[in-house]
Design a protein that fits this description.
Layout: H1 13-25, H2 35-45, E1 51-55, E2 64-69, E3 74-78, H3 80-85, H4 89-101, E4 123-127, H5 132-143, E5 148-151, E6 154-157, H6 161-170, E7 173-177, H7 178-197
Antiparallel strand pairs: 1-2, 2-3, 4-7, 5-6
Helix pairs in contact: 1-2, 5-6
Length: about 200
């Protein structure tokens, strides 16, 4: 790689996105990056990933990746373009609240098989009845926006306990493979809205 690749903080966002795209496209769909390539991709995005894997893109979208981000206790699809451009205040808040939610009942979910297709590969834990974004919305309506702080590779709640307690009272989970998880988002929101109308 050229020397400029190793100094991501000193090059433009446009060039960082070009380099990230080239790096993704140098791998086959489903292929996990080597450790040096994962480290380089991490530097370009400004997050420290344990691993990075090229994924199938959505129609008409940028090349896609799945990542493991230990600091955020997150494994799944990653918007690398958005992470380079920077998130807005709402995305920063959502990110901080998601990080907080991972330290509660989420940790006790047994991750062994996708409940939809039976796959045991690339499993994720997902909110089943109420989408995470809806739990956040309900919490903010009742308690206001919590204070967040930027630490190392992302945002965290200054005092996560109140949101974590609220989240854990409402959250139930299901285990899905990455493919089934991508397909179910709209269905979950529609099902929840239907129960609210009854």
């Amino acid at each position: 790689m050229p020397n400029e690749d190793k100094t991501a903080s000193r090059i433009t966002k446009k060039r960082r996105k070009e380099l990230a795209r080239e790096l993704i496209l140098s791998h086959d769909v489903g292929q996990r990056f080597s450790q040096p390539d994962s480290a380089h991709f991490s530097e370009l995005c400004g997050y420290e990933f344990e691993w990075v894997q090229r994924a199938s893109p959505k129609l008409g979208s940028a090349p896609a990746v799945h990542v493991s981000w230990p600091a955020g206790d997150y494994t799944g699809s990653w918007s690398w373009v958005r992470s380079i451009d920077g998130y807005d205040d709402r995305q920063n808040l959502l990110s901080a609240m998601r990080v907080a939610s991972r330290s509660g009942t989420f940790q006790s979910v047994a991750i062994n098989i996708c409940v939809h297709c039976g796959s045991t590969d690339r499993l994720t834990v997902d909110h089943q009845s109420i989408p995470f974004s809806r739990i956040v919305e309900l919490f903010i309506n009742e308690h206001g926006k919590p204070e967040i702080v930027n630490v190392d590779f992302g945002w965290q709640l200054v005092d996560p306990k109140q949101f974590l307690d609220y989240h854990d009272r409402l959250a139930d989970y299901q285990v899905l493979c990455i493919s089934c998880n991508a397909k179910k988002g709209v269905r979950t929101q529609q099902a929840f809205e239907a129960t609210q109308r009854r």
